[in-house]
Design a protein that fits this description.
Number of strands: 6
Helix content: 40-55%
Distance between the termini: 74 Å
Radius of gyration: 21 Å
Number of helices: 7
Shape: globular
Largest sheet: 4 strands, parallel
Structural class: alpha/beta
Strand order of the largest sheet: 4-3-5-6
Length: 197
């Protein structure tokens, strides 16, 4: 029979970004927690695995057939913000964005075996095909995989009567220009906007 502490450490190591030392700290922390708090964490994990599923429309995480955003009639269902993962939605929601979403489930990365058919790109095209979408905002990360994915989606959707846009990127607010690299500065110049005077 395996040691319960060692068993927990080994299982915590399966989580992304958790090495053995962090897993040990977490395991000892959990061991010293009040039993009811530790059981709440265990129950939350069990509930997540039993009840959570993907929205049938946008592939966000939900307990129902449709997520709260897709079933909200106040949202602008004619604008779709395309994101990589459900966790991205949380960030966009903080901005006050009022459209809906489409979760790809990652980015195109042939090296990692993530080809376009393994992502929810075809499902996005089906949503656009309805003719009820007026804009698709591609919000993948500004890295090689994100750019490849954005271009793939843009090429796929250009045959439809829909505005295709890409989130802007460049200098974050609060940064001193002297600390920006040339790629960031180049993107900031490309995405420049007119100043209203």
């Amino acid at each position: 029979m395996s040691n319960p502490l060692e068993n927990l450490i080994e299982n915590l190591c399966k989580l992304p970004g958790i090495g053995r030392k962090t897993a040990q700290r977490l395991a000892f922390f959990i061991m010293n927690m009040p039993e009811n708090e530790a059981l709440e964490i265990a129950e939350a994990i069990i509930n997540l695995k039993k009840k959570a599923k993907f929205c049938s429309v946008c592939f966000n995480i939900t307990e129902n057939e449709k997520c709260n955003i897709c079933s909200n009639s106040v949202r602008d269902h004619s604008i779709i913000c395309v994101v990589e993962e459900p966790s991205n939605i949380i960030l966009f929601e903080k901005t006050g964005y009022k459209g809906v979403y489409h979760v790809l489930g990652g980015n195109i990365s042939p090296v990692d075996g993530l080809t376009p058919d393994k992502l929810k790109i075809k499902e996005l095209e089906e949503r656009v095909k309805t003719g009820q979408i007026r804009e698709v905002i591609i919000s993948t990360s500004p890295n090689t995989k994100g750019e490849l994915t954005a271009q793939w989606i843009a090429d796929l959707l250009k045959k439809y009567n829909v505005k295709i846009s890409r989130i802007a990127y460049g200098l974050p607010i609060g940064i001193d220009i002297e600390f920006a690299d040339e790629v960031t500065l180049s993107k900031a110049l490309e995405g420049r906007k007119p100043v209203n005077v």
